[in-house]
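Dear support,

I submitted the protein below through the web form. The confirmation email said the job was done, but the results page showed an empty box. After a refresh the structure appeared. I'm attaching both so you can tell me whether what I see now is the final result or a partial one.
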Amino acid sequence: MGILRHPDFRRLWAADLLSQLGTRLSMIAIPLLAVLTLNASTLQVSLLRTCETAAWLLLGLFAGAWVDRVRCLPVLVAADLGRFVLFASIPVAAWFGVLTLTQLYVVLGLAGVLTVLFDVAHTSYPPRLLTPEQLLPGNAKLAANHSVAAVVGAGAGGVLVQWLSAAVTLGVDALSYLWSALWLRSIRTPEARPTPNATPNLRREIADGLRYVFQHQLLRPIALNTANTMLFQSAANAVMIVFLVREIHLQPSTIGILSMIGLGGAIVASMITERLSTRYGDIRLLLVSSTGIGVAFTLQALTNPGWQLAWFLAATLLAGFSIIISYILGASIRQRVCPPHLQGRVSATMSFLSWGAAPIGSLLGGTLGTAFGLRPTLWTAGLATLTGTALLLPLRTARLPTPTPEAGPQPLTNPHNT
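What the results page shows now:
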């Protein structure tokens, strides 16, 4: 069991798993609700993802500075409860026959604000709960939640939409946030309130986070590459459901099952990343996994009916495997090299650069899909992601510090190849 013997990490892990399962349900249910029930256009569907992630552009950096001033756990609980209320409003409106695209935009926009606060607090909380040598196995377990949720949620989401309707499926998502809040409330390890700055200055504190990331030999290329990947992943995701429904003519349950099979690669990645890291080194493994993401997104464009659905399976297998490895390594590297008093701001800066690209990418995907077609949009997104791997090449001359039980986050040692 390893890290799961830690009772409060086990509670954090259980809360995260429930929340991730619900989120995965909504990732399929929301665009299907828009396409099948509300007859939304390609651009309107892409705007849903834009609303969901736009808060990162508006609040991402502020959230990091704020989280460094407060305890993370109350933020996590409050954000989960708020998202429960928002998503529960969708099946209620559908029940009374008054659900509109406008309501979906509003719900996703407000939920996006809460998600920003939750995600920044969530990535800043493990260093407050775990010792430095526990961070990699802890992040691997949390990444495993992404993997399990991706597989189970994708399959269950498509089936539930077909059996119960998309609106009811979103009600299940709402309940997942409630359960997550209850698990988080059960954590007992005291969390010290961060030492207040003698002369608080929000602008300076945000600038400190930006400066640390962009001056850091490791974090700068990771942040830029992640932003590029998120930009074009969002462009592809914005049109993918429309592509599978209107061009490949798949049913919701079929989309869910195919996604579930393909995302099995994510589970494998969460199980073996620690061993691969030990054998090949974090930097080398990060370069390979980033290349894998680009190749996977490019393969999606080859999807066609019949046996050529195998391209979609191969793409999602490779993407799930590569994304989870990149996520685990990126989070662990950031937590290991970042000083404790900057964890929230550096986390928010990294998230701002990546998730801030998501609404832009969603708009880009919807615009390209409307102007040039869905398949050309997938080709463009895949090749641009693959090209962006070059942003990581400066990492070849960097070496990570070795974590010890006594040492906290450390600066870089002299650069050498790993």
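Response: this is the final, complete result; the empty box was a page-load delay. The chain has 17 helices and no strands.
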